[in-house]
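Our platform keeps sequence and structure together, in a single record for each protein. Such a record has a labelled line for the sequence and another for the backbone structure tokens. The tokens are whole numbers drawn from a learned vocabulary of local backbone shapes. The remainder of this section carries one protein's record, kept here as part of the documentation:
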Amino acid sequence: MASSARPALLLAGLLATAGAAHFVAPKQFDTIVPESLPGSARAWTAASGAVELALAAGLALPATRRTSARAAALFFAAVFPANVKMAYDWRDRPAPARAAAYARLPLQVPLILWARKAGRAQV
């Protein structure tokens, strides 16, 4: 693997794992879907999982890597409200769980930066 492609392929692996998790264990994702979204939480869970799988495939392919990386950065920004909802909903949980929920909030920034880096990988 070319070292310039490594960030893209690692991000593809992360997104593929997360996308699959949406279908294997959807309940944990259903609970963080903001109520303001129309339709069922399960539909949003499935849709976001499918998007993650598609982004993973796009990042893995050199021909679609740049576009997929840009879309991944936008996706990471778009799911931020779910992380806010999780942090709010978990505010009364034990400290370790609460800390995990709060840690997800700033994590979006490095994920967005990672996606931008992946888009610069040589094709």
Notes: The mean pLDDT is 94. Residues 95-119 form the longest helix (25 residues). Residues 9 and 60 are 6 Å apart (CA to CA). Helices lie at 6-24, 27-30, 41-60, 65-78, 80-89, 95-119.
